[in-house]
Design a protein that fits this description.
Elements lengths: L4 H25 L9 E9 L8 E7 H27 L4 H5 L7 H31 L5 H24 L2 E2 L2 E2 L13 E8 L3 E9 L4 E6 L5 H9 L11 E6 L6 E4 L12 H11 L4 H14 L15 H13 L5 E5 L7 H17 L3 E5 L12 E6 L2 E4 L21 E12 L2 E12 L3 E5 L6 H10 L3 E3 L11 H7 E4 L12 H12 L5 H9 L17 H13 L5 E5 L7 H16 L3 E5 L12 E6 L2 E4 L8
Parallel strand pairs: 7-11, 7-12, 9-10, 10-11, 16-20, 16-21, 18-19, 19-20
Antiparallel strand pairs: 1-2, 3-4, 5-6, 5-8, 12-13, 14-15, 14-17, 21-22
């Protein structure tokens, strides 16, 4: 998250005033604002009955009583404001780098740092909850408050997991005994499973130095297995595992990269995050930062050193996160689909960095992926989770769909116009006067390198900036959120950010209600996107789904509005081949109804089954992709 001092100060002042107001209101409601002689308009006393007969509501209100109530709240309000100002002036995330160096009180300093760091997280969560409501076409309300709590808790859990992945815990660095290489397997699984997440018992031995590419169907449990091995599964409240899982390496020697690489960053600068693991292992702060800078330069990421991690693209974050992990020399490296966030050039850089580290150490690597065209990275052995458990060999999906019957496509008249759209971020221009016209029933694929601004483009279009419906001069930004989502609906690159409910069934029902469609409409779309039935997922919390399942659910939810244009940011990330084909089939059906689809993806072939136009976002502008011409 970006540290915004001015915003934090304003929010803390508003929160302090809100506390004073709440205190005064409480005294008025419960008849406690009666001291003094200057009477004010009031509500007659109401005496409750039964078990609440001792409670009296309302009654006389005086100016002096209100003043006393307000003054009694001032000390607490000042604490709230002072905390906000302190957090604004001194980024509390700096305490995270200080704690590991303390001989006394490190646990307390670390706890305080994380606790105070949640203050700006709450601010960010409030803003994100409002954004979710806007994207869903829902007025902010009670559901938004629930979303704020969930987003804040999720970030707090992410902080704990980020520390755990570096071997940093409440009692400083893990002090498990060091084990010589090759004396024990890196990981041993015996009939291991997690009910509801890994249904088939898994048995296997991962030796030191092994490089394993773990494949499997969407939702088969690949992420859950990595979380269990990394030791972060318990942090999410999932402790009901069966069988045994033993690690032959100490916790300090295990490094875990989650599906969202930004989740492991804890500080306000990339170089400080890279240095954090070294600081925790006894290096001085200056020496650790120097070593971190050299590691980033060696990886070709020197220009990212002073960037705030929250400003990185998904690809940049994946590369920087790998530096964060390998600088501490782990002997067990767990990577959850890092390649899916990378374009071809950055994919080669990532694999090169990984290979350079592997050839100089005895590290065991387990990396999940849905390899495109069956391509397994050099040096890796493919395993898969399937009906027989954990087995050698790449997972091969067998998509089977009936042959599509050709239908008459709708008239290709325009439905959306984007004109002179520019976006600047801090000191750099991301989009430069981008213009785009979208026709009814077409699919536009926007490609580009990591950091080119594809996500920024879709988010700006969805927000309504420089965007209008064709044949309508009114900009979408001037229309209500409900009207905007009926014209253009966005599925972001992190689909879990769209969810508001505590179960999949509730999400599907809410989508039907908000969109005003028949009950079960959204569920049918969701079912068609999955490579397996959704029945077993009804009671599952949406954030406990696999990344691919979350994408399917988010697409179904946004398509329920039957918008003129659907914007999909990396929609096939996390999907197996069968699910990708299912996705293409669904999109094909959607465009036949007249809905246009705009897809942002790193890979030019990501939309090859459905794309009618392929555009390249380069240097902030959209140009015709020279690799694939327009298909008639």
């Amino acid at each position: 998250m970006v540290h915004r001092p001015r915003t934090l100060i304003v929010v803390s002042m508003v929160a302090g005033l809100a506390f004073v107001f709440t205190r005064v209101l409480y005294r008025i409601v419960f008849g406690g604002a009666t001291s003094g002689a200057t009477s004010l308009p009031s509500i007659p006393r109401v005496q409750l009955s039964g078990p609440f007969s001792h409670i009296t509501l309302f009654g006389p209100v005086t100016l002096e009583g209100i003043g006393v109530a307000a003054l009694s709240a001032v000390p607490f309000a000042l604490v709230i404001i002072a905390t906000g100002v302190l957090v604004a002036l001194c980024d509390p995330r700096a305490l995270v780098t200080l704690a590991p160096r303390l001989r006394v009180g490190s646990s307390l300093v670390l706890a305080v740092g994380l606790a105070v760091s949640t203050f700006p997280v709450i601010v960010q969560s409030v803003a994100r909850a409002r954004e979710i409501s806007r994207l869903r076409g829902i007025k902010p309300g009670v559901r938004s408050l629930v979303s704020v709590v969930e987003l804040t808790l999720e970030k707090a859990l992410g902080m704990a997991a980020a520390l755990e992945s570096r071997g940093i815990r409440g009692h400083k660095l893990s002090v498990e005994p060091w084990l010589p290489a090759k004396t024990r397997p890196a990981v041993s699984l015996v009939e291991f499973s997690v009910p509801g997440r890994i249904s088939r018992p898994l048995s296997a031995t991962i030796d030191p130095g092994a490089r394993i590419l773990l494949t499997g169907a969407t939702g088969s449990g690949k992420t859950t297995l990595l979380q269990a091995i990394a030791g972060v599964l318990e942090l999410r409240g999932k402790t009901g595992s069966l069988g045994t899982l033993d690690r032959g390496v100490a916790a300090r020697d295990v490094a875990y990269l989650p599906h969202d690489p930004r989740a492991i960053f804890l500080t306000s600068r990339v170089v400080d995050d890279v240095a954090l693991g070294l600081i925790a292992r006894g290096h001085g702060r200056d020496d650790a930062r120097s070593a971190a800078s050299k590691a980033l330069e060696a990886a070709g990421l020197g220009d990212l050193a002073d960037r705030d991690p929250s400003t990185l693209s998904s690809g940049e974050a994946a590369l920087a996160a790998l530096c964060v992990l390998v600088v501490t020399k782990p002997t067990l490296l767990l990577l959850d689909e890092p390649l899916s966030a990378l374009d071809e050039a950055h994919r080669e850089v990532f694999l090169g960095l990984l290979n350079n580290y592997a050839v100089t150490t005895d590290v065991a690597i387990v990396m999940t992926d849905h390899p495109r065209d069956g391509c397994v990275p050099s040096g890796f052995e493919a395993w898969h989770i399937g009906e027989q458990g954990l087995m050698p060999g790449r997972f091969i999906s067998t998509p089977s769909f009936p042959k599509r019957t050709p239908v008459s496509l709708p008239e290709p008249d325009g439905v959306l116009v984007v004109q002179d759209l520019s976006v600047d971020y801090e000191d750099r221009s991301v989009l430069k006067s981008v213009s785009l016209a979208v026709r009814r029933g077409e699919t536009v694929l926007v490609t580009g390198e990591n950091g080119a601004g594809k996500s920024t483009l879709l988010e700006a279009i969805a927000s309504g900036h420089s965007t209008r419906a064709a044949h309508n001069p009114q900009a979408l930004i001037e229309r209500t959120a409900r009207e905007r989502v009926g014209t253009v609906a966005l599925v972001p690159s992190e689909p879990s950010s769209l969810f508001l409910c505590s179960s999949v069934a509730e999400e599907l029902a809410l989508a039907d209600k908000v969109a005003g469609v028949a009950q079960g409409f959204t569920a049918l779309t969701f079912e068609s996107l999955l490579s397996r039935g959704r029945e077993a997922l009804g009671t599952t919390h949406p954030r406990d789904l696999s990344r691919g399942q979350q994408a399917c659910l988010a697409i179904a939810v946004q398509m329920s509005h039957k918008p003129a244009v659907v914007l999909l940011d990396e929609p096939t990330r996390g999907l197996d081949e069968a699910a990708e084909v299912a996705f293409a089939e669904v999109v094909g059906c959607v465009v036949e109804t007249g809905t246009a689809v705009v897809i942002a993806a790193h890979h030019r072939d990501a939309g090859s089954l459905v794309a009618s136009r392929v555009l390249l976002l380069e240097a902030g502008q959209l140009v015709q992709d020279s690799v694939k011409q327009v298909v008639a």
